[in-house]
């Protein structure tokens, strides 16, 4: 499925109008089913659908790791439907998840819509520790490294990105999507399917602002450092401090702000 669609636009410059060809980021609904039963609909950019579904279910706490998954696959007759089955030992979670979830469509800018509270997160995960550290110069360079890995943004100008990096600044994997949360779910889901969680030795970098939900996704994935081009919300800062996550924002032109657990950033 195409990730960018051709569109015709009228460009206005200097009082003149011209017709031009351009591209727009593709946005399509993807239905996630649990044991063939509807669970959620995610508006996303097609691509890495299985990783997106896995990362989403990890963030929703339907699964806690790859061992909980029995199968995860596209439906044979619809590429926009992913069906997930759980191992017998945790299959009881399906009924609970379906009962708890509101029957809503998650749009591209929405995460968990406040359904998960900080108090409930304390019960679901312990604060992160570990000795990961990275140099301030590496932090300052992460957004430009992530930007260089955004071919669809070059074509459309309308996609967010998330990337996972080593502490040396080496890019491990990245994803683009119309939704900021979706891009994070894709890279986290990729590690989950590779059985590489918790990701205690990697850094998550995102192309926009940092919300509560993105910090929460990093926490459940075991990622100790989160770097963003733009600002965090106040709730994101509070949660990062609770979670033991080093939260960095406004990474621009060689400078940045550290909002929590600054000991991991060295001069």
Describe this structure in words.
This protein has 267 residues and is an alpha/beta fold. The chain has two domains: 28-116, Roll (Ubiquitin-like (UB roll)), CATH 3.10.20; 134-266, Cytidine Deaminase, domain 2. The chain contains eight helices and 15 strands. The strands form four sheets. It has a six-stranded mixed β-sheet, sandwiched between helices. It has a five-stranded mixed β-sheet with strand order 5-6-3-4-7, with helices on one face. Strands 1-2 form a two-stranded antiparallel ribbon. β5 and β6 form a beta hairpin.
- Tell me the span between the first and last alpha carbons: 45 Å
Beta-strand percent range: 25-35%
Number-wise, the strands total 15
N-to-C SSE string, H for helix and E for strand: EEEEHEEHEHEHHEEHEHEHEEE
The helix fraction, in percent, is 25-40%
CATH topology of the largest domain: Cytidine Deaminase, domain 2
Radius of gyration: 19 Å
Biggest sheet: strand arrangement: 10-9-11-12-13-14
Q: Note the main sheet.
A: 6 strands, mixed
Mean pLDDT: 87
- Mind telling me the CATH class of the largest domain? Alpha Beta
Shape: flat
Which blocks of ≥5 consecutive residues have pLDDT under 50? 103-116
Question: In terms of structural class, how would the helical and strand content be classed?
Answer: alpha/beta
Count of helical stretches:
8
Using the 3D structure, state the CATH architecture of the largest domain. 3-Layer(aba) Sandwich
How many domains is the backbone divided into? 2
CATH superfamily of the largest domain: Cytidine Deaminase, domain 2
């Amino acid at each position: 499925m195409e990730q960018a669609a051709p569109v015709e636009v009228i460009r206005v410059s200097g009082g003149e109008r011209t017709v031009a060809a351009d591209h727009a980021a593709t946005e399509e609904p993807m239905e996630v089913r649990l044991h063939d039963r509807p669970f959620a609909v995610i508006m996303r950019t097609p691509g890495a659908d299985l990783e997106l579904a896995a990362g989403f279910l990890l963030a929703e706490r339907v699964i806690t790791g790859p061992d909980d998954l029995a199968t995860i696959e596209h439906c044979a007759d619809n590429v926009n439907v992913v069906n997930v089955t759980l191992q017998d030992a945790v299959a009881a979670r399906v009924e609970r998840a379906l009962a708890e979830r509101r029957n809503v469509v998650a749009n591209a800018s929405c995460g968990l819509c406040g359904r998960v509270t900080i108090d409930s997160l304390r019960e679901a995960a312990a604060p992160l520790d570990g000795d990961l550290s990275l140099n301030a110069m590496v932090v300052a360079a992460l957004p430009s490294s992530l930007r260089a890995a955004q071919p669809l943004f070059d074509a459309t100008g309308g996609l967010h990105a998330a990337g996972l990096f080593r502490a040396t600044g080496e890019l491990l994997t990245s994803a683009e999507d119309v939704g900021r949360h979706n891009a994070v779910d894709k890279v986290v889901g990729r590690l989950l399917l590779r059985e590489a969680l918790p990701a205690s030795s990697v850094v998550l970098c995102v192309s926009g602002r940092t919300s509560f939900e993105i910090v929460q996704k990093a926490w459940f994935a075991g990622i100790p450092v989160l770097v963003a081009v733009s600002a965090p919300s106040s709730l994101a800062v509070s949660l990062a401090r609770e979670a033991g996550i080093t939260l960095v924002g406004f990474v621009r032109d060689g400078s940045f702000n550290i909002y929590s657990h600054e000991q991991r950033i060295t001069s």
